[in-house]
Design a protein that fits this description.
4-stranded antiparallel β-sheet, single chain, 2 domains, 12 strands, alpha+beta
Length: 455
Amino acid sequence: MPSQKKPIYKYKQQHFNLNLKRFCIVLCVDIILLIIVTGLFYLATFFGLNEIFIANKNLEAFNKFPLPLLAFLFIIFAPFIEEFIFRFHLKYRSWVINILLPIVLIIISGFLINISSTIVMIGIILIGLFILMLFIIYNKKITNYIEQIWIRKFNLVFYITTLFFALIHITNYELSLTVILLVPILILPQFIGGFLIGYLRVKAGFIWGVTLHMASNAILMLPFIISLSMAFPPVNIQNKEYNLDIEKVAPNFKYDDFQRVSKGSNPINSYSFKKHLSLLLDKEDKFIEFDDSFMAMGLPQLKANILLRIEYNSKNKKVNDSFLKKKNILKELQKAYGFILTTKKETKMIYELYIQDSLKFNRNIESFNHDKFTLNTGENLVRISNGSVKDFITGLNDAYKEELLFYTNIDNGYRYSIDVNRVPFKYLLYFLQEIYGLSFKKQEKNVEIINVVFE
């Protein structure tokens, strides 16, 4: 570590072996501090904060990208881009300032325009253009002055850069009052990491800083990537009663936008592990939970969203027992992947769907009969074709995620086609009443929650 008390703007060519030694020392310090910060995070979970730590948006990427691509993005691409933005400028270059200032002006103007009226927006654009013109006209004087300030106040530049690097990572979390209050804790790993990378960048050069960033990300991400790549190995079972094939399916970028269900086979193509459990247990997704303890590090939630293709064929063609199929599949899943199911009772606020106008609703009964129905649960709509009311409730719960919890007891044997947009609840209620003759009643209900625990 540096002997001086503050960063000093001083660059000179260093020998490779010396830089390598510095790299190894800083990486060891980084790992030690990471262990200490992880311990602090663990202590914070005793105050009920584990859900915030686990609800990191970066974890969502594991469900959207193939693991090799994810490894490239997190370990190679992201570190290089972040280092270029936040630490390449630590060695002053006038051309960097010439590029950086217009970019900063565009970002600030864009942010202000989004929260401003039309007149204010025009004013912001004019002020931005005026500042840009002054910068172009007096470019040499401005860049020379900035260089003098840069060298004289380099310690301030260094710490501000480190702080901005840490603060940008708060976007990894869903913004809330709790997250804002916890900002110093949540960005602590990035601040420490940014300081160490910045030190190495100043002492050894840009490439060494990028390498340290890549190594830090690899240490954090590789355990997740390796664990998920080994999860759910293929299963092929052939016995006297049935054939069962289970295999992992590579995710696509909108894996949950379109879901197709076939009633003639059991269960479904390319559904998440959690969705398969939901169908096998006849439970809504929201009544199935995975271990969210801090020590689990979010891995059970990631496994819950891995896509699986399951194909079951009974050898006894005379027996078409759906309950038996589900029982056999669930038994084999538990045996192959080592998880147990526990239950608990919780009181939840739910919206129960009921038929308010049967004449209106019955207009949507399908006039033809076939075995297949489709369920589309995109970000902006819920659509079923030849499905039951319970299928529609499944679609609503998929679309509204954790915002609302829907439920119904309607099971009249009819098949319907229902098509609604994903809108705020009051508009959804009005639309269902006017078009389909359906409504909701809000009530507290004691429901059974199934907890999935991997052994």
